[in-house]
Amino acid sequence: MANEPQPINALPEGQSEVKGDKVQENKETVELTGRRIFLVRHGERMDRVFPGWLRLGFTDLGAYRPYDLNMPLRAVKRENGWKDFYNDPPITEIGYATSQMIGRGMKLSGIGFDMVYCSPALRSIQSAHGILKSFAGSNTKICIEAGLFEYLGWYENANLNFLNTDQLVSEGYEIQPNYIPYMMAQTLKDKFHSETIEEYYKRVNTVVNYIVSLHGKTKCNLLFVVHAPTIDAIGRSLMKKSATNLSNYELSKMGIHYPYASVVGLEETKANGEWQLMPNILPPISCLDFSNRVNLNYFTRP
């Protein structure tokens, strides 16, 4: 984690002003509906820390052999063995630990979740699992929504083979088997494999509106465990901001603005149903030159 970049223009601790949207500690009190959405990026991914892990971590017979203490002790069983990890890697032990820190911080802050919505990526599911470890006995489940997966333009010729619900349950993940997703994994791969960046943001917008509509007007806390670009796409959708003119380069740098295990909170206002930023939800996670602070200036850009 020491080699992770610091978010550009990250706010100092305790500061909540966001230039542009002018979110301040002393802002005028707004009546809220009680509906809140929390966006969390998955933990540190294995292939970014250990680029050669598939070559060095598996024997010729396909047996997994971790060679670093930051690697998980066992690998999830995959249909095609190690090959399925190429485009769907797990998180590291540190990635799992930071997810647990987020869960612990949420619980200590009195924040619980009515439902968790998750990208089908293994790294997101494992991160959601780590967060929920702090809520033992809560019966909160993870709903797998393929439409929350990141930009498919990066996977145009890739063989994405996500774990299905039965496989995830057998691995011990708290999956909601009765959830009917807006988009199935096969639909995602068939219809969006050559999507543009603008189409990706529209896809996420459609999925998020569908998920929010499932909860009607009832008070609820919804957790989304997703990817850096998907955090940005959800934020743009809920705050009714434009998502045009984003380049592939800018999209590829989203991890700078939304580091591993970063957290953003949004709450709905009663006056017009708009969603506004919740500043300072949790203290940051800091280690050497790593911080999980979100670049709020970027998140709330016009």
UniProtKB/TrEMBL annotation:
Pfam families: His_Phos_1 (PF00300). Residues 1-26 are annotated as: Disordered. GO terms for molecular function: phosphatase activity. Coiled coil: none annotated. Residues 16-26 have a biased composition (Basic and acidic residues). PANTHER family: UBIQUITIN-ASSOCIATED AND SH3 DOMAIN-CONTAINING BA-RELATED. This is Putative phosphoglycerate mutase family protein. It comes from Trichinella nativa. The lineage of its organism: Eukaryota, Metazoa, Ecdysozoa, Nematoda, Enoplea.
